[in-house]
Write a structure and sequence with these properties.
It is a single chain. With 345 residues, the protein is mainly α. The chain has a single domain, classed as Hypothetical protein af1432 (Orthogonal Bundle), CATH 1.10.3210.10. It is built from 16 helices and no strands. It is flat. The chain starts with 6 loop residues before the first helix and ends in a 5-residue tail after the last helix. The mean pLDDT is 93. This is dGTP triphosphohydrolase. One of its GO terms (molecular function) is dGTPase activity. Keywords: Hydrolase.
Length: 345
């Protein structure tokens, strides 16, 4: 039998060489429902695989990152964004000798609850749904309940915590302290998320003709670099250097996932530039997509018979059922459904 090879146990033994601040899979705080260990994979590797094989993960390929249902083949989607975040985060985790498998699982699952039409869709659901809507909370609801027809994915505490606490405020890349992830691996996901979207959104905005490369703030570019790869490399290397305390190799140092003031300031300058020149400009043009979400929400609340049975079975509250259904839609499905219901042209 495969269990006789003790593969998982060998992997767990190798994890003892990780940083003292890394989460060892054998010391996980466990799952909501107890399960027998897998003979080959650690609990975090198992979580990663469950996320990759989920329906919500597959739908990310047709969900907006910034540009709605883009026709160009090279625009970033929510799926390619997720993969970029994961790659950046694993590089940082590996350099700091933290748990790569945990980092990867968190990053792959962090945006599963995102709405169609990106943040425009999220804002509309937040306005309409009495309890409010936040994609990080919906991502947790996806893995806890909505996947597998109400069974959920039964992920480990550490992955669930990282998914829930990956979001940050709009004012600073490092975000607010009150909802910091409980693990350094989760904190890496949060900062890698910002590195990824700042840089790929610049490329997409240039590709879409919204900005030109020469429009980027000179002060930020002089610090971070003139090219896409230079800027990512500068940010990632700075995070690694600034967070070296997480390796446990600096006696007495308080571990922290962070950036230097110089690189953080330049990165926030780019982020502010994107909000002013791209996100807010795009938001003014996204009223059609917002209206699609509004119309779908109001119509489906009054026509519960149109909801798939799995959403009806998972909540006794009509508004929650509709939120779960809409949040899971891809851009194209939402547009198609609105047309079929004669809600939009």
């Amino acid at each position: 039998m495969i269990s006789e090879l003790r593969i998982r146990e060998r992997i767990e033994a190798r994890e003892e060489n990780l940083s003292p601040y890394a989460v060892k899979s054998r010391l996980s705080r466990g799952r909501q429902k107890a399960e027998d260990p897998d003979p080959v994979r650690t609990c975090f590797q198992r979580d990663r695989d469950r996320i990759i094989h989920s329906k919500a993960f597959r739908r990310l390929k047709h969900k907006t990152q910034v540009f709605i249902a883009p026709l160009g083949d090279h625009f970033v989607t929510r799926l390619t964004h997720t993969l970029e975040v994961t790659q950046i985060a694993r590089t940082i985790a590996r350099a700091l000798n933290l748990n790569e498998d945990l980092t990867e699982a968190i990053c792959l699952g962090h945006d599963l609850g995102h709405t169609p039409f990106g943040h425009a869709g999220e804002e509309v659901l937040n306005e309409l749904y009495p309890k409010g809507f936040h994609h990080n909370e919906q991502s947790l609801r996806v893995v806890d309940l909505l996947e597998k027809n109400g069974q959920g994915l039964n992920l480990s505490f550490e992955v669930r915590d990282g998914i829930l606490n990956h979001s940050k405020s709009r004012s600073n890349i490092l975000g607010e302290v009150h909802n910091k992830a409980a693990t350094f691996e989760g904190q890496i996901c949060r900062i890698a998320d910002a590195v990824a979207y700042i840089n790929h959104d610049i490329l997409d905005s240039i590709r879409a003709g919204i900005i030109k490369a020469n429009d980027l703030p000179l002060g930020a570019v002089s610090v971070l670099g003139n090219s896409h790869s230079q800027r990512i490399n500068t940010m990632v290397c700075d995070i690694i250097k600034s967070s070296w305390s997480c390796t446990g190799l600096i006696p007495g140092a308080e571990p922290e996932v962070t950036m230097s003031n110089k690189v953080l300031s330049a990165s926030n300058t780019l982020r502010d530039f994107l909000f002013e020149q791209v996100y807010q400009s795009k938001d003014r043009k996204a009223e059609h997509e917002r209206e699609i979400v509004r119309l779908l929400y109001k119509y489906l609340v009054d026509h519960q018979d149109l909801l798939p049975m799995e959403y009806i079975a998972l909540s006794d509250k009509p508004e929650q059922r509709v939120v779960d259904y809409i949040a899971g839609m891809t851009d194209l499905f939402a547009l198609r459904l609105a047309k079929e219901l004669n809600l939009a042209e």
